[in-house]
Amino acid sequence: MSANVKLFSLAPVGWKFPADRDGLIFTPGQFFLVGRWGVGEAPFGGASSPFEKGSIEIGVRKAGNVTAALHQLARGDEMTIRGPYGNGYPLDFFKGKDVVMVTGGCGIPPIATLIEYIIARRELFGRVYLLYGALTPDDLLFEERYKHWEKHIKVILTVDKPTPDWKGHIGLVSELTREIKIDPVNTATAMCGPGPMAAALENILRPLGIADRRIFVSEERKMSCGIGKCQHCTTGDKYVCTDGPVFYYDQVQSNWD
Ligand SMILES: Cc1cc2nc3c(=O)[nH]c(=O)nc-3n(C[C@H](O)[C@H](O)[C@H](O)COP(=O)(O)OP(=O)(O)OC[C@H]3O[C@@H](n4cnc5c(N)ncnc54)[C@H](O)[C@@H]3O)c2cc1C
Ligand code: FES
What we know:
Blueprint: E1 5-10, E2 31-36, E3 40-45, E4 56-61, H1 65-71, E5 80-85, H2 91-94, E6 98-104, H3 109-120, E7 128-134, H4 146-150, E8 154-159, E9 169-170, E10 187-192, H5 195-199, H6 201-205, E11 215-218, E12 234-235, E13 238-239, E14 246-248, H7 249-252
Parallel strand pairs: 6-7, 6-10, 7-8, 8-9, 10-11
Antiparallel strand pairs: 1-4, 2-3, 2-5, 11-14, 12-13
């Protein structure tokens, strides 16, 4: 996907991932604990269509031990997976509303799967925007999906450092708000991205007049058990693994640096 991020497709052998009543094998924003025997496991958001039963895609940024071990795997090698865990984005709340998705760098996997969900149920949503920023054009992930997404939603991309052939925006995601037209009292926002971007949310969404309780933020913490038993993932008095990873903006805002 980029120099530091690889896309993995996990396909169970001899069975399929079970779906719920709505046909979902996970809710966009939920995560899986994926790993290698003898090394360990780490949390990753599902990135593929949540309706796809034959495989789950995850985008993995090389950060430390587990992710480096995953990057060494070749096609056909075995991985461990458990989940889905956590709450995911509140899809029923999003229905009937304009939707703004804001993300940066490699925060996009949970947003990518939310986009796939929205496209599959497009008639249930109003105007839908993706605002996505990265350092350079090469750091923008899921490039191969943009053409398909653009047929259904408005995709607005920006980079800090353009290449000579770059035709999108230049600068921060927060500067893209003037590009969108929404009804603020009937808009839901999904956000996933690095800490500084989360902290800059006020500059992004406040000018649009979107209330805090319409802004849903996916939090990242180091995890161990993934099921509320080990206290590795606390944010304030909440567990990211079981109370989140998706929170209302005002639930987690005070925990950002
Ligand atoms: C709900 C959730 C969803 C995630 N989804 C994705 C995803 O789709 N794709 C992806 O690439 N990554 C995702 N992450 C982050 C990913 O889990 C970490 O990068 C991974 O755990 C690092 O493991 P490691 O053993 O390779 O690195 P470690 O050796 O554990 O850590 C390497 C460095 O990264 C820091 N770090 C580790 N985990 C985190 C974290 N969760 N937040 C902030 N800093 C951390 C450590 O402090 C250290 O500096 C997600 C995390 C959470 C909690
Ligand atoms: S990861 Fe163990 S309590 Fe959340």
